[in-house]
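Whiteboard transcription, Tuesday session. T.W. wrote the structure tokens on the left side:
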């Protein structure tokens, strides 16, 4: 599924369960991991120590990368390391493209604090900009279930959602996981004067049927869910209720850089989910 995983790290991510999770995924797929520290050129980090010009962030990056690398060594994961200078989000995406990485793994929130690559800052921008899938997960010391037993695929019937669902189904087929597909009709839509309830239900069923057919062609068991409410809340509630291990969801991709993610839903799910979320761009 994935051959080359880029894992941007900082001092918080270096000891997170996201690092363990990336290692698990790499081991499963026989993939390589590249640890990347970005020394933010927007921060004043150059100083003079013992008569020599020293970049404190680059020095910090070397220590962080070494710490993370020692863990990957202990887990027997093939890896490389790099330290780059630049604006973090753009540098991460450009580097991932240049090195042909097919997955970027990024942290979101954690119990003991917030990584510098906080969603809404670097992680959020990477999710919007990256042409390859981005796996996001909270910095959670308890870790994540892997291989996934159940994956949730939200859909609104759009081509972006279908593309993400196909990616999620390929992932589920590789892992031997079950798929759950969910479509949500929001209360605000139901309340609008132009909404036809019958047409909305028909469109929702068509969206589910399309993904169900794609699942069956891959030999993946699929369970449909049609819900009403706030979309992000229903997605997260389904994850909890069905005890699912991951979400695969579409984003707007590069064609919509001036827009938020698909209806803001992907961003909200990434920000709040306690399980890994893979966002797949629309290009």
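and on the right, the sequence the group agreed on:
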């Amino acid at each position: 599924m994935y051959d080359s995983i880029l894992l941007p790290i900082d001092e918080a991510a270096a000891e997170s369960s996201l690092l363990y999770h990336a290692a698990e995924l790499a081991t499963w797929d026989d993939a390589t991991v590249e640890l990347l520290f970005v020394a933010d050129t927007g921060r004043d980090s150059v100083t003079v120590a013992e008569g020599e010009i020293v970049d404190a962030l680059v020095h910090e990056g070397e220590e962080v990368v070494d710490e993370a690398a020692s863990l990957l060594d202990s887990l027997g994961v093939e890896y490389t390391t790099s330290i780059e200078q630049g604006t973090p989000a753009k540098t991460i995406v450009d580097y991932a493209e240049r090195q042909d990485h097919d997955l970027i793994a990024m942290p979101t929130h954690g119990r003991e604090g917030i990584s510098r690559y906080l969603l809404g800052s670097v992680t959020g921008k990477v999710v919007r900009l990256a042409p390859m899938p981005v796996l996001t997960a909270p910095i959670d010391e308890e870790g994540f279930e892997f291989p996934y037993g159940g994956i949730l695929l939200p859909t609104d019937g759009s081509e972006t959602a279908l593309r993400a669902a196909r990616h999620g189904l390929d992932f589920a087929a590789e892992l031997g996981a079950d798929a759950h597909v969910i479509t949500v009709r929001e209360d605000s839509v139901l309340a609008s004067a132009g909404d036809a309830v019958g047409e909305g239900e028909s469109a929702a069923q068509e969206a589910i049927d399309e993904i169900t057919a794609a699942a069956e062609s891959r030999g993946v068991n699929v369970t449909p869910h049609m819900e009403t409410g706030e979309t992000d809340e229903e997605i997260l509630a389904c994850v909890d209720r069905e005890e699912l291990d991951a979400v695969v969801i579409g984003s707007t991709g590069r064609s919509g850089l001036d827009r938020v993610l698909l209806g803001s839903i992907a961003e909200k799910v990434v920000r709040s989910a306690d399980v890994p979320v893979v966002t797949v761009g629309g290009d």
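Someone added at the bottom: DSSP finds nine helices and 13 strands in the chain.
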